[in-house]
Amino acid sequence: MFNVEEKKKKTSKLLRLKFESKEKGDPRAHFGSGPQQKHRTFYELRTYCIRPDQNAAFLKLTNEKIHLRTAHSELVGYWSVEYGGLNKAFHIWKYDSYAQRAEVRATLAQDPAWVSEYLSKALPMLTSQDNEVTYMVPWSRLQSPLQEGGVYELVSFQMRPGGPAVWGKAFQAAINAHDAPGYGKLIGVFHCEFGLQNRVHALWWFESPDHRAEIRHTAHHDARVVAAVRNNIVNLDSQRNQLMLPCPFSPLK
C-alpha cells in the first residue's frame, strides 16, 4: 500500500511541475500556435501567381480597386516578388476569428462593386492562388519598418516533423541571433496552421537589396550567428527566400 501511495504522490508532483513549467513560459509549450488560438487572431498569407503578360495590369488594377477589399477586413501588407520568384503577388490579411473571415468572404461575394470592378477582371490575369492560415509565434510581435521604402524578405522554413517541441528553441535562437544585433529589421514570425505543417515564415525589412547583401555578408562572419544557424539547420528540411517590393497601397511599405 505504501508503494502505491508513493507512486501516486510522485505522479501528482510530475503533473504539477509540468503544469507550472507551462505557466512559466516553457518555450516548447508556447512556441506553437495553440496558445495563440486562445486569442483567435490569425494571419492569412496569400500568394497569387500572375500571367507574365498581365503582371503590370494586375498590380495597376489592384492599386485602383483595393479599397473595395480593405473596406471589409485589415490588410497588413501587399508586395510584388522581385527575387526568388517571378510574376507573383504576396499579401497578408489579419482576422480576429474564423467566423469573421467567413463573414467577410460571404459579404464580398455579394458585393457588386467588388465582383464587377475587380474580381471578374483580376481572376483571368492569374494562373493560381494559394493561401495559408498562420499564427504569430508568441515571442514575436508585428513590427513596423525603420522607414518607408526599402525591401522585404520573406524567409520560409520547412522544419522537420515533430513540431516546436523538437525544433522551437533552436529556431528561436537562430532568428534572435540575426535580430538582436540588427542584421535586418524583423517584422514578424508566422507559424503555419493550415498549409504545409512545420512551416515557419520570417518577414524582414532592409533599406535596399544591396543593404541586405552587405548585412548578410557581415552576419556570416559573426560566430554567434554561425553557431545558432548550425544548431537550427539539423531540424531544417528546406528554406526559400523571396525579396519583395511593397506596393504603393501596402500598409507595410
TrEMBL record:
Report the InterPro entries cross-referenced here: Dimeric_a/b-barrel, NIPSNAP, NipSnap_domain
Q: Could you tell me what this protein is called?
A: Nipsnap homolog 3A (C. elegans)
Q: Which Pfam family is an annotated match for this chain, by its short name?
A: NIPSNAP
Q: Which family does it belong to?
A: Belongs to the NipSnap family.
Highest taxon of source = Eukaryota
Gene Ontology annotations for the cellular component aspect, listed alphabetically: mitochondrion
Please name the GO terms of the biological process aspect recorded for this protein, alphabetically: mitophagy
Looking up SUPFAM superfamilies in the UniProt record yields: Dimeric alpha+beta barrel (SSF54909)
**UniProt organism field:** Neolamprologus brichardi
